[in-house]
Amino acid sequence: MSIDTRERLLAEAEVLVRKRGWSGFSYADLAAVVDLRKASIHHHFPTKEDLGLALIAAYGVRYDQALQEIEAASDDALARVEAYAKLYLHGLRAEQGCLAAAMAAELAILPPRIRDGIAVFFERHIAWLKQVLAAGRANGTIGADIKPAQSARMIVATLEGALMMERLLGGPAGFKETLAALRKSLK
Fold first, then answer.
1. pTM: predicted TM-score of the whole model, two decimal places
2. Which is nearest to 146 in space by CA: 162, 161, 131?
3. Where are the domains of the chain?
4. Which of 35, 42, 99, 152 could be stapled to 129 by a disulfide with Cβ–Cβ 3.0 to 4.6 Å?
5. Residues 122-132: pLDDT tens digits?
6. Hey, which CATH number is domain 57-185, 3.20.20.70, 1.10.357.10, 2.60.40.4070, 3.90.1150.10?
7. One-letter-per-residue 3-state SS of the chain
C-alpha cells in the first residue's frame, strides 16, 4: 500500500468523523468510501485507536501550519482571531464539525490516548490564542482590560459552540454574527 492510500484513508476517515462522530463510522464504512477491503485499512491502521491517533496528529499539523500563516500575516490580534475563526467557518461551509470537538463529544467512550491527544490539540490552541491576545494587549490591537488566559478559552469555546449550533440553525450567516460579537468583546 502506498503513502497515498494512507493519506486518502486519513482524509476520508476525517470526513466521516467530522460528519458522523467517532462512534458513527466503522472500518466497513471507510472501506466502502475508499473502495478498499477492510484488511487493507488494517494494514495502515491496525486498530481504530491507531486511526484516531493518526487523525488527531494530522489535524494538529494542519492547524499548526495555519496558525503560523496567521501569525505571519498580521500583528493585529483582532485580525489573527478573525483569521483563526475563519478556519471554523470553513468547516461550517463544508457541513462538518471540528474533528477534535466531534471526538471530544464522545469522551466517555474514547481510549485514553485519543482523549490525551484531543486535550493536547485544544491546549495548543488556547496557548496560541493566549500569546496572540497578550501581544495584542501590548501593541494596542485589543482592549487593555482583556485577560489573555481567560479570553483564549472563551474564544475556543465560543467558536466550537458556534460551529456546532450554526450547523443546525443559521449557517455561515449565524456564525458571522457570533464572530462579530466575539470581535466586539475583545476591543
1. 0.90
2. 131
3. 57-185
4. 152
5. 999 999 999 99
6. 1.10.357.10
7. CCHHHHHHHHHHHHHHHHHHCHHHCCHHHHHHHHCCCHHHHHHHCCCHHHHHHHHHHHHHHHHHHHHHHHHHHCCCHHHHHHHHHHHHHHHHHCCCCCHHHHHHCCHHHCCHHHHHHHHHHHHHHHHHHHHHHHHHHHHCCCCCCCCHHHHHHHHHHHHHHHHHHHHHCCHHHHHHHHHHHHHHHCC
